[in-house]
Amino acid sequence: MEFDNPREVEAHKGVLALVTEAFKYLALANGGAAVAVLSKLGADGSIYAPERALAPFAFGLMACGCSVLVMLMAEMLLLHQRPDSSKQGRSSRAVGLHVLACIGIFASTLFFAYGCGVAVTQVELARAKS
Predict the structure, then answer these.
(1) How many C-beta atoms lie closer than 10 Å to residue 123's C-beta?
(2) d(CA 72, CA 85)
(3) What are the domain boundaries of the chain?
(4) Which among 20, 38, 56, 99 could bridge 115 via Cys, Cβ 3.0 to 4.6 Å?
(5) Could you please report the per-residue DSSP string of 86-108?
């Protein structure tokens, strides 16, 4: 990967650091929520359908993990770009992979929000049944 000036290098490092923190946050949020659902289930069994409450968080973790792999592929594509090769071709593929990784981050966030709603609904259903 070749940048023309130091500002571009620092901007690239900053974006990578920001994306890394987003991945960490989403993995922690989805994983922590899944653990909370399991602990609520283990404490008093007050979740009506635990598989429905856990599934969105599991899908959120998978979306986050896939996004990390796609982002890694994009970075490796940029890293192994030769100065004499067509910059436009590799750059456009890397941009496409970055967009795909961003979609995965967004999907992970949506799975987390949906999972929170489902978990609350399942707890309410369990309370209504008892």
Answers:
(1) 17
(2) 21
(3) 6-129
(4) 56
(5) -HHHHHHHHHHHHHHHHHHHHHH
pLDDT value, residue 87: 55
**Radius of gyration, CA atoms only, the chain:** 20
102-118 confidence digits (pLDDT tens): 899 899 999 999 988 88
As a whole number, the mean pLDDT across the chain is: 80
pLDDT band at 2 (very low <50, low <70, confident <90, very high): low
Torsion of CA 80, 85, 86, 92, to 10 degrees: 0
pTM for the complete prediction?
Answer: 0.75
What is the separation of C-alpha 55 from the centre of its chain, rounded to a whole number of angstroms?
A: 15
Q: What's the one-letter identity of residue 129? A: K
Name the token pair of 120. Answer: 């609350």
- Amino acid letter, 45: G
For 115, other C-beta atoms within 10 Å of its C-beta total: 24
